[in-house]
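CATEGORY: protein folding

GOAL: derive structure tokens
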Amino acid sequence: MAAMNALHDGSKLAVDAHVKYVQSLDTKKDELDYWLTEHLRLNGVYWGLTAVHLLARPDALPRQGTIDFVLSCQHDNGGFGAAPGHDAHMLSTVSAVQILAMVDALDELDARGVGKTKVAKYIADLQDPDTGSFYGDEWGEEDTRFLYGGLNALSLLGLLSLVDVDKAVKHIQTCVNFDGGYGVKPGAESHSGQIFTCLAALSIAGRLDVVEREKLSRWLSERQTPCGGLNGRPEKAEDVCYSWWVLASLSILGRTHWIDRDALVAFILSSQDPENGGLADRPGDMVDVWHTCFGLAGLSLLQFPNMVPVDPDMASSLGSTRDCTPVSTNKLIPLLCTVCPDAPRFSDVSHLLTHIASKGHLHHETQTKLKAHQDIAASVTLQQYERWYKDNGIETLLVERMRAKQKKEAVRNIRKRDSTPFAPSKLRRKSKRSSQKAAVKAEDAEFPQEFSLFPGFFPSENDVELDEESISGDMLSLKGQVWPGMGKMDLANEDMKRTRNQRKPNSVIEKMRRTSERIEPNQVIMTSDFEVERIKGVYDSSSPIPDEEAETPKRAPRPKRKRPQALAEISVNVPRRGRRPSSRRNTTAKNTPPAPKEIMNDVLLPSVSNSSSIRHGHDIFRDDENRASGMAPRRLAIQSTNDVRYLRRTTFYGNCLAS
């Protein structure tokens, strides 16, 4: 019947019916089930109170009556029982602390109870000093549920220092399995409920670094069945309560998008009773307050419309834990953003503030504001975000962070007005071992040693604290313009608005001018011994001045090629008549090495009487009529070894013919 009604109603959540169902739980004292569940009475109050808080009905249950009932269950040792007269137990004590935190009545422990310190001592005494695990009571039952409950309650009380957190973390590490999950104790099977208790405890302790995120997230995402619901272990049926155990674990790991959101929402809504209220473990079963609480908590993690955000670590609404003192400052503020997709979580407040100031977050926030005019879900999401933004003082944190950053930068750059900008210093004595010549100009001796190579950066020894009087009048002249709507996302205070977008003061401009005059466009190349190796200009043809076209590189001159000597029509050994040897031949003759002496003697011309009968086709001798009688033999101009060999052969053949 519940499933048919849910399908008929579509995606509607019967808020009024669920509130009435929770309110009616304490009116069934004439029923047997009421007394059979007395051992869960205090836990049931926590489940019902959490449900109405998530439905944005925190006043549905009487606050004072709730406080009175909780305090009536307390023992003298500081622990709480499940009901008046029941023995104190860890689970009941944790529920009592969570209830008082939700109704903002933790101070009642000191006013009417035995005190916060005694409650915290009762919890701390249940920790095993050797293993770091926690017992459920004095009889020594061990379970990771008790460990998580102890850290949860102590963090709400602000007394987590009473226990050994490091040993508790080590015990959790011993419970991990090969699939990345956690069991109730070392060696036990991985279970979704135990995984949540271990992950939440590690998150409270700030030790999520020991978790195998990818492996565990894969195991958790496989818990979704074809019908959309989630189960606690493989091969088990789906159950509404695992919508919290599995989804909260994925939320801590930042992997809520690894499951089918719409299918899970449909499964949870199909398990509700829209007429009488309440949620069952699965469609068609009887409703109970346990599944009602954790089914609604799952819808809150899925950002269902009109639901109050829930803290996955503390298993309570965000508003109930924001004023509690946790293990670290990370828990002062719920470290998640509900306006962005998948409600991302953050490791610390600084990470959260960085996200809030990012363009991506501002984009999603603006889109949500635009959709809020027509979409009811977007309107509810925006209201929740704005309430979270206001309650946790996010604006103040952003302003303080910006002011601290601005002051830090100003202190680093502001100098005393009466201090000398450049203190002269002696030049460093050059090492005699260096063979490099000094390449620094004489005027470089005036360059101060303290002056940084980066213009505008000065040593921190002259820094002074930022003083309002040091701000000159010309710094207050703004050149910016404020446009309509800018103030909605403007996080600057009045002082920051006055000093931002300001033009540089005259003192800064003068300092920049003096700096530019002392800097030359040269590149000083140093050796490994900090000696000047060479100095080269920065602005040359290879690196032109900015905004100036590069100079066209000149083409390198090609080397002149020597023209090969043309073949002579006549032998070079024959002297030209009335002609002066050309300069080219003279050059060639100069470059030609002289022939050996013995070779020159072999090629002497024969006497006139002996050479008159020589006739040869190759014109190497003068004609007889052109030769004067009695002329002394002359040497031939030998050009190369080949010419010598050729001349020998010619002489030989000529002698043979003459004979």
About this structure: The first strand starts at residue 80 and ends at 81.
